[in-house]
Amino acid sequence: MPKVSLSTSIKHSFYTPNSLRRKNIWLVNLRWVSSLALSIFILGLFFLKLENYPYSALTSIVIVLVIFNSLLLFYLKKRKPKYLRTEENIVLAQIVIDYLILTVLTHFTGGIDSPFHLFYLFHIIIASVIFETKYLAFIIAAVAVGLMSMLVFMEYWQVLEHYSSGVKVYNLTDIALALAVFYVTIFVSTYIGATLMMRHKKVKNLIFAQNEELEKSEREKMLFFRFVSHELKSPIIAVQSAINVVLDVMDVKLKPQARDMLERGRKRTLQMIEILKDLVSLSYEEKDEKHEVEMVVPCEHIPEVVDYYRPSAVEKNINIIETVCKQHQGFQIDKFVFEKIITNLISNAVRYTPIGGKVTIKTDLDDKFWYLMVSDTGIGIPIEEQKHVFEEFYRASNAKIFEAVGTGLGLSIIRKIVEQENGEIFLKSKVGKGSTFTVRFPLK
Amino acid sequence: MPKKIMIIDDDIDLVEAMRITLESDGYDVIDAQEGQKGLEILKKEKPDLLILDVMMGTLDEGFHVAYQIRNDEKIKDIPILMITAVGAQTGFKFDRQRDEDFLPVNEFIEKPINPQVLLDTVKRNLPVA
Prior knowledge:
Chain A is α+β, with helices and mostly antiparallel strands and 444 residues long. In chain A, 61% of the residues lie in helices and 9% in strands.
């Protein structure tokens, strides 16, 4: 069993430069929206004829926002995301500049009375989502609190003017209460946001780590599997070679019974070798780096494969019929994969078709798929067993009687390969009449 | 003079089976169980043809032996038949036309070896004296 360590020590950066860049762009877009919203807000104030707002200052803020955003966007478009650090710094810079602008906006819309001071919360949430460390979110929260306090007290000490549509109630108790609520809101939000995010990141890291472990153990298992198959194959090949020599080379007089027993032995070793070969191809990930991918137009490839099977078909007096292959301009398939699929289907068809039968290879085409159909007039597959034939090691009951030797792996391998190529495989069969296997691949 | 055939393969049972098969057809057979040892014997004995296993000590020892032979002026013309189960092992099929360029052997024989196929392949690849 693969041992999966539950440690979170493997650090996976939660973001890549690219994903953080997307966050940066997202912040830029958010700023466009805020500029627009602020413009509408100013227009609203204007139409409501609220006199005590400094329109020119507010309009300047919009202009500053737009200029800053355009410059930032220009910078981001020009420089490709490369380092995580840089992208993090850009986020940080955006937050700081936003805070400065927001403080100015809060000032001109009433300081402690301004509804805009709630917007300080947004960046805290953004910071706790983006930054790996909790403390950065708290620093940003502190910056928000500091800026707000500074503003409020400067207005209180009348270093700055206090703009308000309402009555100017400005005693120290009111200010203290309002600021206290603000502090609590900010820090509690930061705490909740950062804690949740840390937990989320931890879980994600854990999943990453486990996945990596699993993949590794899977790879190791496959290697072991191949190694074992090879180790098993060598002795069985030696056994078979020994039997071959006795039966085919040595000029020994064997009793018919002895010869028969050796023939049986030979047949069984052959079976074993076939099983091992199938096991290896089952373990082998088709897409791995081992085989060079060579794309072929399937129609150009079918005759070659069919010719290969003609001799064994002729032996059983089976006629292999190829209908005209339907091509689609541009549809190609991995040669290795295609060969594997079609050879398996044809050899199955020939194997399970009685003497004098017929195997037909047909192709078809519609807007979405290319189809390959291999039909035979063979023994067929009982309906209740059809859903199992693609399972590993499954052999239909009548197949076992008709052909003693077989691994029950062929079809499961085909299905695996077909699915790896985004294709599908279907079966239509009737006992005593024959079977048709249809494989289809998407054209794009 | 009977033709001399050398087998380099680490599986002595396979070597024995091939030896009996080849001797039945009148060949002289010499063998080695390991690549470097085999090369030494090969240089000394100068067989008419070499049957070489791919996977011996390492997965591709046979390939290295084949390269060394082809790069040695004195023995580079010896025909090499490579026995392989690689086709099934690694999933890549040897395509003769394509692979000859980088793998300097005359022909591949896939394991398990059928005696008649072995004899036919040997005969086909022996240099005409």
